[in-house]
Amino acid sequence: TKDRFTNLKRGSYAVLNANDVDYFKKLLGDNNFITGEEVKAYNEDWLKTVCGSSKYVLKPKTTEQVSEILKYCYKHNIAVSIQGGNTGLVGGSVPVFDEVILSTSAMNKIISFNKLSGVLVCEAGCVLENLMNYVQNKGFIMPFDLGAKGTCQIGGNLATNAGGLRLIKYGSLQGSVLGLQAVLADGQVLDCLSTLKKDNTGYHLKHMFIGSEGTLGVITKVAIHCPNAPKFVNAAFIGLKSFDKVLSFFSLIRKEFGGSLSSFELMDSVAITSVQKNIGLKCPIDDNLEFYVLLELSADNNFINTSIQEVLEQALAEEIIVDATVGDQPSVVQNIWKIRENIPESFLRYGYVYKYDITLPHELFYEIVPEIRKRLEILDVKAVSGYGHLGDGNLHLNVATNEHSDKIVSAIEPYVYEWTTKCKGSISAEHGIGLLKTKYLKYSKSDIEVDLMKKLKNTFDPKKILNPYKIFPQDDIN
Ligand code: FAD
Ligand code: 2HG
Ligand code: ZN
Predict the structure, then answer these.
(1) Which of 89, 369, 428 most suits a substitution to test ligand 2, by most atoms within 8 Å of the C-beta?
(2) How far apart are alpha carbons 406 and 93 in whole angstroms?
(3) Would you say the ipTM is above 0.85?
(4) Of ligand 2's atoms, which has the minimum distance to the CA of residue 344?
(5) How far apart are CA 471 and CA 134, in angstroms?
(6) pLDDT per position as a tens digit, 224-278
(7) In the structure, which protein residues have their CB atom closer than 6 angstroms to any atom of ligand 2?
(8) pTM above 0.90, yes or no
(9) 118: number of Cβ within 10 Å
(10) In what order do the strands lie in the sheet with 33-35?
């Protein structure tokens, strides 16, 4: 599948020689210097769309080791591909050519947790689910959640400014991250690991790294604010007949529950069919409807439990919704979530998936899906689905096929991005630009913005050794 990127030229970086290999081996020890067959898994992304040809993975255990690695790479002009859990969906986490892979997997220590402030400080390689379990035991939650929680790492989450399933209640990571430590391209350690909630002393440099997709530095430590765990969590799975009804239901739920609304996720019938057929999960309600909503409410009082029943009954009576199941037992809540969280994996089981992650006004949220279906009618496509974080206006348009085809790509792109721009949306709501979307950056960023971004890149990484070929179109940056 690399053929999509054959027009890229390898930058004039050094090829690792025996001295370099000796240096890294000595610095990290044999166990944390990976070569041979094992490197394969680090070269390929989750979507199996991009596959690099790196020969080496470096797994530093400390910030000091990251600093030594980058100092050396900077001096010797060695390109570096930064990797966390490798669950990214835009080809940003794997090398394009032979960049050496710096994996944060061995930096997985929790440093501190303050019960008074709710601030967690940890290393970048901590797996999100481990952090969730850790803070849950203390009566707190992480301020975000994603289907990839079992594998993705907090450093990768910050680097992509991951959105996810709870953003509607807790906001974006830009608000929750209080501080971070990062190693710059030349090896200098930038310590912005503040745990303060308020600190207006000039520019907030931490924001440069949140969403920078590994192009400005390696995030090594994170300080993040964790909200109290809600005492009551209630999840409902709801069936609806049309998209208009979905919007009426959203409006009703917003009005009734406001701040207790922790998720409002939309799934179309194609997504539900895929998860039933390809994963073997069962839809808990009538599986012949056009749309499904996963609604989660969370609060510190039990009022939500009785009032959600009443509101759902009212919505049924008014024919806004046609079927629903609701529960507050952790196992029930978890089973409802399983369906939603398994949708991406279910589409991948068809063979190949084209993913579009766009922000749109609520009214236009679903319009593009039937439009794309029509455009692909005569091509060999297994499924065209729209699902996602409707509460935040974030649509995931997935087109599943048996294998990659240029014909299908050109039937969707740039059409989908032109359409998004016309609606004043964003061409990447939460997954980033990575390698797969560099060509389309211009649809969401003006020339002035791209120019300033390039100047920042040059300031942070003048030799452009960090995650080359990512975010910027190659002609723009070299
Ligand atoms: P990687 O994939 O390893 O890397 C992602 C990017 O960050 C790369 O550019 C990489 O170079 C850079 N990077 C990684 N670590 C560092 C670091 N320490 N310092 C600097 N740069 C670094 N995303 C969402 O936003 N919302 C979702 O709901 C969501 N759900 C998902 C569900 C599934 C099943 C899957 C497979 C993915 C999902 N994603 C989602 C995408 C992905 O999980 C997120 O982007 C996640 O934040 C990536 O974390 P990671 O550790 O796997 O990073
Ligand atoms: C989700 O919300 C993720 O499940 C993945 O962001 C979306 O795979 C996708 O298109
Ligand atoms: Zn998502």
Answers:
(1) 89
(2) 23
(3) yes
(4) 8
(5) 34
(6) 999 999 999 999 999 999 999 999 999 999 999 989 999 999 999 999 999 999 9
(7) 89, 147, 343-344, 355, 357, 388, 396, 398
(8) yes
(9) 19
(10) 33-35, 56-58, 100-103, 80-83
